Amino acid sequence: MRDDDTELLGEEGSNTLSGQEGASGSHATTSAGLAHLGVVVLVLGALGALPYASSALRRWQPWVEGEGVPIVRMFTREEPIEGGLAVATGGAASGAPAGNVASVLGDAVVANLAEDDAPPPEPAPTAPDEAPPAVRIDPSELEGLVLELEDPDGRAMRPFYDALLRTAQREPGAITRVAHYGDSSIAGDGITVTMRRQLQRRFGDAGHGFVLIARGTMPYRHQDVRHSADDAAWDLDQLIRAGRRDHVYGYGGVMSRATSASARFGTDDSGPVGGRVSRFELWYRQHPRGGRVDLRVDDGEREVVSTRGETMDAWHSVQVPDGPHRLELRAIGGGEAQLFGMVLERDGPGVVYDSLGMVGARARRMLGLDPEHFRAQHQHRQTNLVVIHFGGNDADDAGRTGPQFEDDFRQVIRLVRRARPEAACLLMAPLDQAVRDERGNIVTMAQVPVIVAAQRRAAEAERCAFFDTWQAMGGDGAMRRWFRSQPRLAFGDFRHATPAGYRVVGNMLYRAILKGFSDYLSR
Amino acid sequence: MLFNSLDYFAFLGLTLAGYWALRFGGPERDDGPRVRATWLRLGFGFLASCAFYMAWNWRYIALILFSTALDFGVGLALGRARSPGARRAWLGVSLAGNLGLLGAFKYFNFFGEAARDVLSIAGVTIEPPVLDVLLPVGISFYTFQTLSYTIDVYRGRLRPVRNPIEFAFYVTFFAQLVAGPIVRASEMLPQLRRAPWLDRARVSDALFLIAVGLFKKIVLADFVSVNLVDRVFADPAAFTAPETLVGLYAFTLQIYADFSGYTDIARGSARLFGIELPENFDRPYQATSVAEFWRRWHMTLSTWLRDYLYFPLGGSKGSELRTYFNLWLTMFLIGLWHGASWTFVIYGNLQALAVLWNRYLVRARAAPADEDAYVLARPWNRLVDRLRGGRDRDPRALTAFKIVLTLQFVVLSRILFRATDLDNAAAVGGRLFSGTWSLAQVAPSLWGVLLGGFVLHYLPRSWLEATRARFVGLPAWGQGVVLALVGAVLAVFVTAEAVPYIYFQF
Asked: Of B376, B393, B410, at which residue does a domain stop?
């Protein structure tokens, strides 16, 4: 071997064993070695037994009753471990079956795991003299239905289904708008992107909907839309942090303020929806010291909007030919621009699904909004359905009782009802929230069933529909099973789902809503 | 049965008890005939290893038994065969059997997909057949092990094993069965033929290795995995550029701690049976070049391919072009060994390119300064010359610079290693250029574990050796107390469900 072989790959025969394999020991030394090992094991055993003296030391007990007999349990568990796919799936044999979701979570979850990338049809509106098309839901569309909405008298969702029927009948301009409020599970647009894609594929794409101006340090993002901002230049007033004396935070719960900053919005052709827009609408707060905002579509002429004037909510619309477009927004001084967000819409008919997630939000934070301001926002948005989806962060509030949670949710429902009495109301239970117990086992947090029960009572009392996300996931211990499944449906914080997990929840919700619509049509 | 579980240590204890009881059941003279005791001891070990493997998935025990029987039989046949043709034929049977097994279970579907993808460029549409199989745990490891046996017997470097139990023990030994190190027959079989022995120092060393391995796996690997790495790769768009970069560093720490931690436990466990397994890592992130990195990372794989592929191809004895080809093929196969997907095809080629470039630089330094063939190396060599300031050896600053440069390549290229597919790799890589600057999603505890892990990696070797020596010097009860304390700390970090080792899938 030449020297450069050594340089590159080492010498032949290197990395072979060294030292001890060539040696040998006598019977006596081996006895001494085993005796040494025996003492170590005895000491370990004795110290390992100490935690059994107190239940407070349960965490350190090597084994407790109910955990199965060590070794034996490895042969009796339901699912074999199929390898180290938990960390790096890249090494798995290509084309292998898609994990163990069916065996761990059941076929219903598999049915909701699928992703359909087909773009939605582009149905033309019906002509005035044309009879509206018949609307029916084919039973095959409901395959994979796990749980129905709880809407005993069918009235809570009726305003939404009325609007959806008009959209389905392709009435000109019939846009059905949904506002989905929630916490970090929504801020990443995981559940809501699935709902948006499914509803738009079925009923038409009327645009992406509402997007915040800037995200600051929040893990906030939307899919099927291009959105970026120089986040450091924007100051954010967030509803979850309160702080504003006027309690004005906008439709999405975040006001972005700046005298000099920019943000960009545009259509995105990489997904099945969101590739077209015919109207940008800037949502802002007009005030006496308001600054100027420069809007520019597709490198075209700049349009300057002044946000100065009497204090009130205001909107500015920019019409564009239906198609792919982008808009650049710049706060250019003259005062502080206080902006709520940007809406991207089309003329319809179709559905718009606004994803309104607030990272870290609890339900009762919504009560920090000025009711009149919230009403003005929703009246302008003409929402047909408001989804209230909190509870994940509330699960940390160990000191709160069921009646207190119920009161929180009832007040939030009333706030929404006052803001938009014409809209339907849907309360959604949180995803299963889990922690490790003192044994390291992943267990559902104690407050989760309390919150879900409180939500069910609140929904019933306020005549709001209810979707039991927790039960749809599998109820108690669901997060543990979702974490164990392959592909993994929950992250290791046991509070959030993976994108695949959110897709499952989104599809479950979509099918529940579609089933409700099907029942509505058959009445 | 994961090494970081109570089940494993219960299993280890029971197996050790049976193994050593049977050792003492034989004659006391180590150099005398011990046929009965060896049969019983190794037979017991073989059955225990089969049970260990079946705890993963009982369905695939047939595969490892097939591989064992095939190579045992081929070994005997090679021992009897006289003509070179017959010997080549028997070697061919072994190669076809083992590589066929690997191909069918690991690469068949990918090759079909690859053919479909390539042909689709030419406008030809095919629908390749798909095998509905799972990747058997450890198949890439034990097929390479048994191949080393038949190749060495073929080369006349090893006599055929006549005791099937001895051979079966070698192939299935549970400590290294599912994720290596890849132990060659020439390394393990001589150990099995001697009476096993233990002494106090060997036991203490083994316990220290196991404790270090558990620390790496539980505190370093699993913690950064569930708290950042999984999320960055599952949902790249939710992370900013610096968060993604931290996630990539975290994965680099994770995979080292995961695999080397597993190897430590494997070596420690084997040592308690009186068996030495080869080292698999040599502080790989201290490498000053990618070529050196592969001499320090998963050493039993890279040296296996060196000895059984690179050298037979001619190594560097042929033309310069041929040497580059040999190097490329070896490095490419190292990449592909890790997984059957386009990401690993590209990963292997990236590593190969880096090693070829490294060779080019090394050759350029030895060549006359004005030789045109090495014109591309001149800027680098000028920089090195300036930093060396006339000295023959690299100053510390230059060494550190090379280490940092090599580490960056390792970190970035591992996007392909961890990504689920090319789209995922592009999404993660793309985030590095997203122009977003927050680090809000990296928790302080994660910073602590990350920094601690890398600092440990770069500590002087003598410090670790001093720690080991202090532990070995403790009396048995003292070692028990230390291990109990380590266990208590690990219990705080341990994840609810032990996270499987990354390399089990290869």
From this structure: B393
Range of the domain at A114: 103-124+133-206+348-523
Residue of A nearest to B114 (CA): A94
Taking the CA atoms of residue A219, residue A220, residue A222 and residue A226 in that order, the dihedral angle to the nearest 10 degrees is -90
Supply the pLDDT for residue A130.
75
- Distance from the Cα of A477 to chain B's closest Cα (Å) equals 13
Q: Minimal Cα distance from B434: which residue of A?
A: A228
* The total number of residues written for chain A in this structure: 523
Strands A302-306 and A442-444: unpaired
Which one is catalytic: B338, B414, B418, B431? B338
Does A76 reach chain B within 8 Å, measured CB to CB? no
Q: Does A264 touch chain B (CB under 8 A)?
A: no
Residues of A in contact with B418 (CB under 8 A): 88, 90
B298 is catalytic: no
Q: Does A73 touch chain B (CB under 8 A)?
A: yes
CB contact under 8 A, B481 and A43: yes
pLDDT tens-digit series, residues B156-204: 888 999 999 999 999 999 998 888 799 998 889 888 888 888 889 999 9
Give residue-wise pLDDT tens across range A210-252.
999 998 777 788 889 999 888 888 999 999 888 889 999 999 9
Distance CA B332, CA B356 (A): 11
CA–CA distance, A384 with A395 (Å, rounded to integer)? 29
**Do residue A500 and residue A384 come from a single domain?**
yes
How many Å separate Cα B62 from the centre of its chain?
Answer: 24
Cα B242 to Cα B144: distance, rounded to the nearest angstrom: 39
Which residues of chain A make contact with B341, given a CB cutoff of 8 A? 90-91, 94
* Res A206: pLDDT: 95
Q: Is A521 on the interface with B (CB under 8 A)?
A: no
Contact A164, A472 (CB under 8 A): no
Residue A49: inside a domain:
no
A492: pLDDT confidence band, cut at 50, 70 and 90? confident
E strands in A398-507 = 424-428, 434-436, 442-444, 465-467
